[in-house]
Design goal:
Length: 135
């Protein structure tokens, strides 16, 4: 009779190399669920904690549901979490590592450089040119 095989998880020790590290996800690929990341603030591997916030679109959808379904339809977008923004926080240091606005790409947060000068957020479309001087 065949013996059942033990299931190996991604943190099981290997006889030759020790524990196998869990792969982390790049911050640019975060979505609406917790993920395992390399935190740029505390420089540790950690899960993200999700904090969701209602967007203006959530509130507009609630108004639309109120008109279509009646007063009882107002709660639907809030309970079913339609059109919400998503903040990713590191579970080790509680720093916000990314912000996922509803329907837009992820905005990655990075720590300020050691000189103390903040780096502005650059959208995936690239930097915008400076405004032209009108004389």
């Amino acid at each position: 009779m065949e013996q059942p095989q033990e299931l190996k998880t991604d943190m099981d020790p290997s006889p030759t190399t020790g524990p196998t590290p869990r792969p982390t996800i790049p911050l640019e690929h975060l979505d609406d669920s917790p993920r395992f990341i390399d935190c740029p603030f505390c420089e540790q591997k950690a899960w993200t904690k999700i904090v969701q916030e209602h967007s203006d679109e959530t509130k507009r959808t609630a108004c639309l549901c109120c008109f279509c379904v009646g007063v009882f339809g107002v709660w639907m977008p809030f309970v079913f979490r339609w059109h919400q923004h998503c903040h990713h926080l590191c579970t080790n240091c509680e720093a916000e590592v990314a912000f996922k606005p509803n329907g837009r790409p992820v905005e990655v947060r990075r720590p300020a450089p050691k000189g103390g000068v903040e780096v502005p957020y650059v959208s995936p479309e690239g930097p915008k040119p400076p405004p032209a001087d009108h004389e």
